[in-house]
Amino acid sequence: xxxxxxISGPCQIExxxxxxxxxxxxxxxxxxxxxxxxxxxxxxxxxxTSLKGQRGxxxxxxxxxxxxxxxxxxxxxxxxxxxxxxxxxxxxxxxxLQIPAFLSRQTDLLIAxxxxxxxINVKKGQFLAPWDMANVADKxxxxxxxxxxxxxxGTSFGYQTLVSDFRGLPxxxxxxxxxxxxxxxxxxxxxxxxxxxxxxxDYAPALARAAIAVGCAAIFAEAHDDPDxxxxxxxxxxxxxxxxxxxxxxxxxxxxxxARSLKAGF
Amino acid sequence: xxxxxxISGPCQIExxxxxxxxxxxxxxxxxxxxxxxxxxxxxxxxxxTSLKGQRGxxxxxxxxxxxxxxxxxxxxxxxxxxxxxxxxxxxxxxxxLQIPAFLSRQTDLLIAxxxxxxxINVKKGQFLAPWDMANVADKxxxxxxxxxxxxxxGTSFGYQTLVSDFRGLPxxxxxxxxxxxxxxxxxxxxxxxxxxxxxxxDYAPALARAAIAVGCAAIFAEAHDDPDxxxxxxxxxxxxxxxxxxxxxxxxxxxxxxARSLKAGF
Amino acid sequence: xxxxxxISGPCQIExxxxxxxxxxxxxxxxxxxxxxxxxxxxxxxxxxTSLKGQRGxxxxxxxxxxxxxxxxxxxxxxxxxxxxxxxxxxxxxxxxLQIPAFLSRQTDLLIAxxxxxxxINVKKGQFLAPWDMANVADKxxxxxxxxxxxxxxGTSFGYQTLVSDFRGLPxxxxxxxxxxxxxxxxxxxxxxxxxxxxxxxDYAPALARAAIAVGCAAIFAEAHDDPDxxxxxxxxxxxxxxxxxxxxxxxxxxxxxxARSLKAGF
Amino acid sequence: xxxxxxISGPCQIExxxxxxxxxxxxxxxxxxxxxxxxxxxxxxxxxxTSLKGQRGxxxxxxxxxxxxxxxxxxxxxxxxxxxxxxxxxxxxxxxxLQIPAFLSRQTDLLIAxxxxxxxINVKKGQFLAPWDMANVADKxxxxxxxxxxxxxxGTSFGYQTLVSDFRGLPxxxxxxxxxxxxxxxxxxxxxxxxxxxxxxxDYAPALARAAIAVGCAAIFAEAHDDPDxxxxxxxxxxxxxxxxxxxxxxxxxxxxxxARSLKAGF
Lengths: 266, 266, 266, 266
Prior knowledge:
With about 270 residues, chain A is α/β, with parallel strands linked by helices.
């Protein structure tokens, strides 16, 4: 029944200056709106559609910037990891380790992440049913770490399209773990631009509102000062200027949703 | 920006007494909640999964009962039609003619419905994209009748499952016609019980909340005093005792949603 | 274990001359190839994507032309029907009545078709599972008419795309009725051109080969002398000049497939 | 136009004796049938549905057994790898390195595999379109290694179901790389047994026949002496006694398919 959390930031940590600038904006706006904030940034994009896609700043530089953002703005920071070694290293720095959707069934990665003792945000694979996430969570919980978040970022629906099944949020909540809705990757069009993914950011606010209405614990939404020129996920990231209205809409709905729990248990 | 409308009633008009009893309950509860109410009932189930499924009371008896309900409770009434002849006959009695999803591409039926001058609620075929509904609406509007409602009742997602794509509601709203969300058929599991359809009514309230949060104009939700023993759609109809809480949840969310229009135009 | 049958012809009966010309070509080529031939032509396209799509020549003219084709070329003729009245009228003339996929759950139409005593080719709705066709066949068989063909023309797969599930052919064959594979509608892209459907005819021969290899009884494939300018289904119809090679490929594979029944019973 | 290759073996290398016994059977039967044979076995199942699923014999023991099988039976051997270190180590021993479907977008793994100089069999992610595999192949080819096989093992279709899109085989062949069809994983039902995947092996032979008919270069099909009691993939592996008939069916169809190339270029 606590208010929703916003997990946001640019898809990639493009540079120290850029990441700090976006963190500053988001920290300020979430504070105004009374919304708890987690900064998200990736140091490496390990699964780009094409080899030509930009990879990122690297783990050493990335973790330093994330630590600086946490110290500067007082917010928890989140990043995604791709192998056991990265789990250990990033786990020394960040508050929340994220398991990418494609890797959500990789047992060793889930266990390595769990063993760091950090909170783990696992994205539901686009190829998994919501109820499959109980088995995924069990792999992490086997380490004794039950600080687990289950995140929906869309499900494969034909080619190059994802669909968000809002029955899935209460289904995942039946595990007892908080459920996160990723509003910007859910409107991605995988591979839709040939050498990179497309997307329709215009529909992200509608999906976020729907997720809040069914009662989810956090909204994940990437944001950028110039999304049309961002090195990755441009078509689906939110422009910064949308954030104040986005937060105002969601906080108003969230108060209602959290005050009323659904008959069906969510 | 007007408050949402509830379209509700039993799947089938089982008998005069039964229909009146349910209409009475729904009229009373929607009045208490300040929600405009449309009574829905079918006189014929023309596309049951199996031949053994009960068909219904027939058009003559059905239309008489619908007229009585309108006169008794002062609410508009809606029924679904399956051929040109039925369009004409039902069009003389009911306020809203409904085109079943499977028939949403049958040009002659759409035109016959349009020509009655009644409001037409067209369900999006499970096999159609949201944007395909612009062509469907154009067929009706070609008769000069623009009193058109576009209704989402789920989209085919693998076998025996439907998924509700909440990007589809704003997409359909781009036509300018009001958008209805059918919360109970969206949780149907077509053919899921072999000789009849299954369903998971527990998720219908969550989907209705999501639809209200994105701003839709009306919620369609079938309701029954004993859904587990209803002759059709039992697994997905709402029990009557859920209705007061359902309305309270939705009206609270609706006030917020209607007060704030989404950046993306819905 | 009999050789496969080719059901072919233009999507629409555009004119007497055009239909006879295509029938002549197909009758000649199938005779050369030793393939039994059924001529297919529609007198009305009742469910075009858009109102602007051409409807067809009408039932009176259409049935006369179909009768002439049967008399001239000695082949059975097939057409699709959309209501009970058409079932009766077309049933007096044609050898095979076809139920369109969108109408495959309309009980009254299935029964009216069955009552004509003609062979009924029912297309599997794009929204149905292969095993749902057992209930569809039962509706027809309830009339005492068991001359039923079950035809796969693709299943909804995301938006504007169909996929052919080749597990579905043996599943449908478990009913005991012959299974037809519709190679040209399976490569349709519903609504893919905005006001009409798109398609990729280049993949139709591959799918037809796959269907023959799993042992199906007949291939349905529309053909046209100038598909790019045809009034409907142009993007997915086969050009006539593909037919001889198409038949040669399929007959060679069919001999092998029919000589060897699959362990899994198909 | 060369005859198809069979890639087969048990899902897991359960023990030296077990692997040798199955390899012996398959080597003997493929030799009789004149079908080139590649032995497949996994030393680690890194992405089991549930933590309770058995993982495997480990890389050290596994590679020794694979080397022994190659030496004993004179066949190439294939195994799947999950990280860069495994790519290097397995690349010193096996002839074909396989990239699991879930990992088909992991750039570093694809490059590490490519750099071994071995043949790489990449499975198409269940979440990818066939044409996305051109980007995947480019990542490998960027190492200068163009010994690439593209393998279809099914595409997500609703929950817990995969569908094999046979348009995808010619689409992937447009890259110029040989196309493999994985007949046994394509009939898997992911997560279908709660803590493990289900499957319907009865349909694997039909899908393999379809794949051969459209002209693919190799069939991947796991086989086991007691699939119902196998530690993984039991529901979809072929019993060894099916193999002789399976090979006879496929070789007969393959001769026809390879002799006739499709108009559409496959």
